[in-house]
Design a protein that fits this description.
Blueprint: H1 5-21, H2 27-54, H3 58-66, H4 70-79, H5 82-111, E1 117-119, E2 122-124, H6 126-156, H7 158-175, H8 177-213, H9 220-232, H10 237-240, E3 242-243, E4 250-251, H11 256-266, E5 270-275, E6 277-286, E7 311-313, H12 318-328, E8 332-336, E9 342-347, H13 348-356, E10 371-375, E11 378-382, H14 387-393, H15 402-405, H16 411-419, E12 428-431, E13 434-442, E14 445-453
Parallel strand pairs: 4-5, 7-8
Antiparallel strand pairs: 1-2, 3-9, 5-6, 8-9, 10-11, 11-14, 12-13, 13-14
Amino acid sequence: MDPGPAAILPSSSLIIILSSFVHMPDTGVILAVLAALLLIFCSALMAASEIAFFSISNVEKEELHESEEEADLRLAKLLDRPRYLLSTILIGNNVVNIGVIIISYYIITHIFEFKDIALGSFTIPGSVFDFTINVLVVTFFLVLFGEAIPKVYASLNKLKIARGVTGLFVVLNRIFYPINYILVGSTSMIEKRIKRHNAEIDIEEINKAIEITVENKESGNDVKMLKGIVHFGNLTVKQIMRQRMEVAAADITWNFEELLNYVREVGYSRIPVYSENIDQIQGVLYIKDLLDHLNQNASFGWQKLIREPLHAPETKKIDDMLREFQESHKHLAIVVDEFGGTSGIVTMEDIVEEVIGDIKDEFDESTDTNIRKVNDNTYIVEGTMPLHDFSKALDLETGHFDEVREDAETLAGLLLELKGRIPKAGDEINFEKFNFRILSVKNNRIEKVKLEVEN
């Protein structure tokens, strides 16, 4: 039975309506569609690679380093610089996605021609439909085929994909290196500032919480201990070490009699031993090792008793230093600067005192020789007193002078930064509520300072 006119009319009308805003694709559009599909595949590859690379565990990374396969070694090398790898993936993915958007806009505008639609007195521009289709269709294809499916697949086949794209990303890393260098450098600098800012805020809040929860003055020692624990992970050995000018060290060329006289004079249980100058530490002498040889004459070769020294950089955190002391079964480390010179020494006792307070044994003096209290607001302070200890003595926050101290680690160094030159005896230096009066200077070094603290 032949269809009647009523059946033919709707289909022909639909074709007429569609032909009014849909055009047949030409060669340029077909090529653009192929290019868009290729770029979506590239986007999928980038998304899958990101999941594959950053899902590899530390154990798997070690296995890659130990592998003899060239692809595994290349992959391990890429993973050793994760920031550069991630930057390459993000740059590549964004370039591809921008390409998909541009090409898809070209395809849609050449296939569809939307007219303005009048709804009474209100008109919907045809460009709104252009924009809507571009956003909805392109976003759908990118999210589904360029992100979701590849990432699910990559999470199940991470090593297979990571090995397969290693060569590609070695090339891309080289191509994008100038951009990566700028991006990684910028983000690292921002990250450090944010971390430092957040850490300072967190510590301040914790300190306030500790003070609020302690209601009576009898718990003062508990407050100090809790604050010491809070600051423990942020302190470096440079902040708590004994400065090199205060280090008691023995010359390796001394005879046994000279050594014993020096040991009796300084009274320490461990003494660094140097050759020529203190920057050349040869080892550490444990005084207990001398006990079996006290009856020896001056020619006794005590140098054979020297033990291997433990070294630590100035920037080492004291919690890491404590762990190293525990593992090495040593209680003293030589602190070295960036040039390999000796900055000072740090001991197990120095670290423990940061938490529980000063430890006094029967040989220690009853008062701190670096600072002497005259009255409630006046102190006599040695210029060599470390800023960290000075802050603790005055119940100040550890980083109270950080904004003005630059690289100074002692009170004398801080005063030099504030004054801008070497002061003379009698000079006064004011900072916040502190009034420093220089009492004595010797060989361009500040020896004693009178401190008055305003209420």
